[in-house]
Write a structure and sequence with these properties.
7 strands; alpha+beta; 4-stranded antiparallel β-sheet; 3-stranded mixed β-sheet
């Protein structure tokens, strides 16, 4: 029922920037977010995202935001925070997002981290501005990373109450209905009770593959939508569509291959290859670009109408190419991994340094 409503609302969401909050809550009530109980359930979450993204890429993106936050909490060692928030996120009582776009780019050396933190009694004082945090409004929560003065990251849940200033002055060519806000944190107190992990580097290693692979759900849904547009066009224009350089069967074959690789990687989510995860995410982006372009070409002039589904899914598909990690970010990281570097390898080394330092300290005190 929720998907049928969403299908009818998709054009309005795209044209008017409607935030489909009620649809997200209805999906939550039907159990869509409850499928992610443990790490091995990742493919179920990706599948649910794809079903929504097929109807509306914007709302599929919001689904990803909610699932990303659920993923962070599922993998957290903060049991009290998990017990408080996970049921609310899965039931739709609380909607939220992920503010990892900036820190993921910062870890990769693309830009500076926008949030700073300093230790205080009972937690941390956080300051800074995040330009784009999606699927949030007053009462929402989101996961964020701030850096201490020594460069050590702290990751916690930020609560969008009176302490956080939200604004939405930027207008987008698509994804306007994603409740994307600028969030300003001024002397925001992040208590230890809202911190997601004590061992931050091992935690980042643990959550990042899932964070990246969940986005394949958005790509998959948009590719499926593109194939539907192409098949519909072929009912009347196959005689001319056959001269295009790619067809429905070819794209379906490529899509099936990507889905097969995705299932394989998710089965090994506890010991994934960083290179395999990144290459799969890149290939999903490039296939999305190919499929959405094909949908427009198959549709011809009709695909260029403002209200055309082909035009909408192409814009939605473009977002898959630029959402963090973007195509250029992925290619950069892939090259660094091939050369023995990359974020994952760096975090593992940092975790080992911290562990060795703790051992030396314990040894010095005879523990």
């Amino acid at each position: 029922m929720a998907l049928q409503k969403l299908q009818k609302l998709a054009a309005t969401i795209d044209e008017s920037g409607l935030y489909a909050k009620d649809i997200l809550k209805e999906l939550a009530a039907s159990g869509s977010f409850s499928v992610l109980e443990r790490r091995s359930d990742l493919l179920k979450a990706i599948t649910n995202i794809s079903k929504v993204a097929k109807m509306c890429g914007t709302t599929g993106f919001c689904m990803w935001c909610q699932f990303a936050l659920i993923w962070y909490l599922t993998n957290s060692d903060n049991e009290s925070l998990k017990n408080e928030l996970l049921p609310k996120l899965k039931s739709g009582e609380v909607l939220g997002g992920t503010a990892l776009s900036n820190p993921m780019k910062a870890f990769a050396g693309i830009e500076k981290n926008r949030l700073s933190a300093r230790k205080t009694e009972g937690g941390y004082i956080v300051n800074g501005t995040l330009a784009w945090v999606s699927n949030i409004e007053v009462g929402s929560v989101f996961g964020a990373v701030a850096l201490l003065e020594d460069g050590t990251p702290v990751m916690g849940v930020v609560r969008c109450d009176e302490r956080v200033k939200l604004s939405d002055q930027i207008k987008y060519s698509t994804l306007e209905g994603s409740a994307t806000k600028t969030a300003v944190l001024q002397d925001y107190f992040l208590p230890h009770g809202d911190v997601l992990a004590k061992d931050i580097y091992r935690y980042l290693v643990k959550i990042t593959p899932g964070f990246v692979l969940l986005q394949a759900g958005i790509a998959a849904g948009i590719v499926e939508a593109s194939l539907e547009v192409m098949e519909a066009s072929n009912k009347t224009h196959e005689h001319i569509n056959k001269f295009l350089p790619f067809g429905v069967a070819e794209l379906k074959s490529e899509f099936d291959a990507v889905l097969g690789r995705l299932a394989s990687v998710v089965e090994r989510i506890d010991s994934p290859s960083a290179l395999e995860v990144l290459q799969l995410r890149l290939d999903a982006s490039l296939l999305t670009q190919k499929a959405t372009s094909a949908a427009v070409l198959f549709s011809g002039t009709k695909g260029y109408f403002k209200s055309a589904r082909a035009a909408r899914i192409q814009r939605e598909g473009n977002f898959v190419l630029i959402v963090t990690p973007s195509v250029k970010h992925l290619i950069k990281e892939i090259e660094e991994v091939k050369n023995g570097g990359g974020c994952m390898a760096g975090w593992i080394r940092q975790a080992e340094r911290v562990c060795n330092a703790e051992r030396k300290l314990q040894s010095a005190f005879g523990v």
